[in-house]
Amino acid sequence: RAAQAAAIRHRPAVTRDGQRRCVAANMQGLQDLDAILDSGAEEVGLFRTEFLFMNRAEPPDEAEQFALYRQAVERLDGRSLTIRTLDVGADKPVPYLGRPAETNPSLGWRGLRYCLDSPDLFQTQLRAVLRASALGPVRLMFPMVSTLDEMLAARKALDAARRGLDEAGIAYDPKLPVGLMIEVPSAVEIAEHLARHADFFSIGTNDLTQYLLACDRDNPRVQHLLDPLHPAVLRAIDRTVGAARRAGIRVAVCGGMAGDPRALPVLIGLGVEELSLSPSRIPELKLDLAQFDTGRCENLAQGLLSLATSAEVRKEIEAFLAARS
Ligand code: PEP
Ligand code: MG
């Protein structure tokens, strides 16, 4: 099966009924690019840039960030690169930023919240991303959006970065697609409003599950509750996809759920258009995808939305997979 997956990995990802889906890779740094290019990934759906800021003494400046994004764009050779702005805080510490200790770091000053309060740091990154967008297909994505005002403020910061580059005569892609992570329950609830100010959504199921179930993703005592196949998470994905469709924007899933073979027919059935995952799983995912019929996945997913527990969801999925084989 591994050999079969390897053999088809550079082919387009299609379901059994011939529907295309985008299969993308998650990335933390340039060191991942060999594996990504070898995996058959069609693009990079999530570049977690906070790793560029970790394990060093000061933040990378604009020149360093630009050089890095540029290398990624060049090596991806026409495949799109979705750059997520710094998602610092909680499980991603960056000591030199001098951030105060927090009682509830997951609910604290993290992600976009921190960037909006750190305008110099944010402008530096936005300018570097914009400059890279002149060299190939780049998308920009904001993490941890919980209110519409944050999204509008982030877009304003981006406009300011654009003006700065205009004044200096520096090139960038004026049509750079701008999206956000849907990973906070409030963002799901107001998804139709956020969609009016976004070119795409990417659902972060790691944090979305953590926040929906009030369950720390790093606390071993509560791991059994942290289940992305909980009906509450499935309903949240369903509503997000619905809002995205009505607004005519694309929706991806980039959390760990995107790499789970059990979740795959569910995400396809819910209408997710792009899956972004660890490159090591991409060849097998393409092979799995080719066995699923979209209509049957839709029936499965619709049935799951009215269930009460993760156990019931898993049972239905097992039955679905058994009937397929
Ligand atoms: C997520 O929360 O699902 C996600 C993709 O972001 P991260 O795991 O980097 O928080
Ligand atoms: Mg997250």
From TrEMBL:
Regions annotated as coiled coil:
none
- Where does this one sit in the cell? Cytoplasm
Chain ranges passing through the membrane: none
Job description of the protein:
Component of the dihydroxyacetone kinase complex, which is responsible for the phosphoenolpyruvate (PEP)-dependent phosphorylation of dihydroxyacetone. DhaM serves as the phosphoryl donor. Is phosphorylated by phosphoenolpyruvate in an EI- and HPr-dependent reaction, and a phosphorelay system on histidine residues finally leads to phosphoryl transfer to DhaL and dihydroxyacetone.
UniProt similarity note: Belongs to the PEP-utilizing enzyme family.
Q: How does it assemble?
A: Homodimer. The dihydroxyacetone kinase complex is composed of a homodimer of DhaM, a homodimer of DhaK and the subunit DhaL.
Query: Can you name this protein?
Result: Phosphoenolpyruvate-protein phosphotransferase of PTS system
The species this protein belongs to is Imhoffiella purpurea
Q: What does the organism's lineage look like at the top? A: Bacteria, Pseudomonadati, Pseudomonadota, Gammaproteobacteria, Chromatiales
